Amino acid sequence: MKIICSKSNLVKGVGIVSKAVPSKTTMPILECILIDASMNVIKLTANDMELGIETRIEGEILEHGIIALNAKIFSEIVRKLPDNDVVIEVGADNQTLITCEKAKFTIAAQSGEDFSYLPAIEKEDSITISEFTLKEVIRQTIFSIADNDTNKMMSGELFEIHDNLLKVVSLDGHRISIRNIELKNSYGSRKVIVPGKTLQEISKIIGGESEAEVEISFTQNHVVFEFGNTLVVSRLIEGEYFRIDQMLSSDYETKVTVNKRELLDCIDRATLLIKEGDKKPIIINIADGSMELKIKSQIGSMDEEIIISKEGRDLLIGFNPKFLIDALRVIEDEQVDLYFMNAKAPCFIKDEQQSYIYLILPVNFNAVA
Amino acid sequence: MKIICSKSNLVKGVGIVSKAVPSKTTMPILECILIDASMNVIKLTANDMELGIETRIEGEILEHGIIALNAKIFSEIVRKLPDNDVVIEVGADNQTLITCEKAKFTIAAQSGEDFSYLPAIEKEDSITISEFTLKEVIRQTIFSIADNDTNKMMSGELFEIHDNLLKVVSLDGHRISIRNIELKNSYGSRKVIVPGKTLQEISKIIGGESEAEVEISFTQNHVVFEFGNTLVVSRLIEGEYFRIDQMLSSDYETKVTVNKRELLDCIDRATLLIKEGDKKPIIINIADGSMELKIKSQIGSMDEEIIISKEGRDLLIGFNPKFLIDALRVIEDEQVDLYFMNAKAPCFIKDEQQSYIYLILPVNFNAVA
């Protein structure tokens, strides 16, 4: 194999596919990026068997072939080369020569034959969404997936399509995040669970422009994201997602409307007093016209009053401050509405159209302290 | 004690003095910042017994007094407060109330009486230098102090004043960095060894403007840096510094002139192939008109040719690439001159006026490999 591409194209391509290179593996071939110039395009591929990414880069093929290069070394070399054309040439024993201007690197590579190609996907049905919207919806929900693997289902997000509506849901046992998005077209009904890791990597790769589009296709076991020159293939999580509808309720005893920034800043300040791993709740005392937030730890105590408008009963309720912060951070509205039933029932933060619903369970606290 | 200052003044002041708060100590009082409002100014002080920093901040004193607050907690609270006036008030048992708008923090503090004040310094003689020059000269020499304490002297830098010249020297047994600076005025001769840590912290605090000035005063055991509202007092390292003059030589057998950027980028690329802790040298083969740089490790090999102009003999010599990189990074000149005697003798990188001299010892290498 012998190819020529510009350094900038290589850097970009390697940056994209590297997201699918596992950080730890016992199989050295998985730590590689495959350069495939066997046909008339140059394709870079990485694949950790759950998630695979392939991207086409521009360049000239002087000799067809394939080679698998260690992703870490290859990407470091490419990044530090002068800003000019790079020649990659495979010699005897897969020794690979990377030349740019007068710099010559020789590294040992592995045969491309050993590399696991991405699964061939026959796209059954697909939806279209803008890069911007996809990136946003991931950011607005990804924080409430469970970060351990004890419940596989909780490590993914539900993507539910019905007519022209996409509903994205994540939950971790303490809270639920829901976003409802209107699509440009209508589609058949479909429910899949996409691994959180796939969504995290996708959101790093896509540009986030509102004009650029992503095509998302589903098969029995896979989801495929296509955008620009790039193809991301991921396994789906098998099984049926939690029935969240029965956890949602529109009844409430107390409704609070508050400036989002003020509430967020106040809770953020309060967390200063909590050391990591310390489970001190923030206590919220809701009264007419104002609500008092209090926290107390070994380090010290804080209390602050925020002006609100309130409907319904007074309430004293405690929360893990991190859960409130996570939800408030991804809401763009200047004012937010919080709905409460009682001190044992979940709080809902949602807008009128229910484009977002954040459900957060309260925590017990010692009212005397 | 009760004082009012703006959040921004507090943040700035706390940021400055925090540099003298030790990261680890068995004495809780050293982890504190002293707020001293006993006289008619508000002073913040931190002191780790080697290095002490004091800064005055603007504000209003409603009740005189002093208090010592844990630096980490205090600075985190202050940073997260709303951007408005902050009231700090000491109550019973040194419980300290920090109020800003509707936010109220209460933290336990320590009596200011337990705090070790900065040593009272009678300034004997002092020099004046711009913030910019001081910051630069520290950056240009600090990398070659020894980072362990086996030789105390090597963990500091020599500041030698003679007439209107300031010479700053650091060395670690493998290399020497020397900068000669012309001062605006002439001073009596003086030689002191300033701890590297002091210089590192100073260079983080000073603004680096060429108009702003720093007054540096010396006493028998201390050095004092005064700039703006801030005073930094540090112990000096006792003893006589190494006699470096006898290590410097102006003889050479080979002189190379090379584009600094090209040389630096080439060595930088080569280090990709070296894992941390791996002591592979870069081998330089100097010939007429060009020099070849080679490195070989388990990961792979690199070679690159650079165009040079050369006087004197051909030479094959090896270096720790990091030492070359460190020196080249802080030289501003577009072209640099390298002087060599033989493969066992140090290389000198210096300009004609000797405003900088970097001496680097070569390393042995296996010429066959």
TrEMBL record, chains A, B:
Localization: Cytoplasm
Keyword terms of this UniProt record: Cytoplasm, DNA replication, DNA-binding, DNA-directed DNA polymerase, Nucleotidyltransferase, Transferase
Residues spanning the signal sequence: none
DNA polymerase III beta sliding clamp C-terminal domain ranges (all copies): 248-363
Domain DNA polymerase III beta sliding clamp central residues, every copy: 129-241
GO molecular function terms attached to this record: DNA-directed DNA polymerase activity
Domain DNA polymerase III beta sliding clamp N-terminal: 1-118
Annotated family: Belongs to the beta sliding clamp family.
Quaternary structure and interacting proteins, as annotated: Forms a ring-shaped head-to-tail homodimer around DNA.
Role: Confers DNA tethering and processivity to DNA polymerases and other proteins. Acts as a clamp, forming a ring around DNA (a reaction catalyzed by the clamp-loading complex) which diffuses in an ATP-independent manner freely and bidirectionally along dsDNA. Initially characterized for its ability to contact the catalytic subunit of DNA polymerase III (Pol III), a complex, multichain enzyme responsible for most of the replicative synthesis in bacteria; Pol III exhibits 3'-5' exonuclease proofreading activity.
The protein, known as: Beta sliding clamp
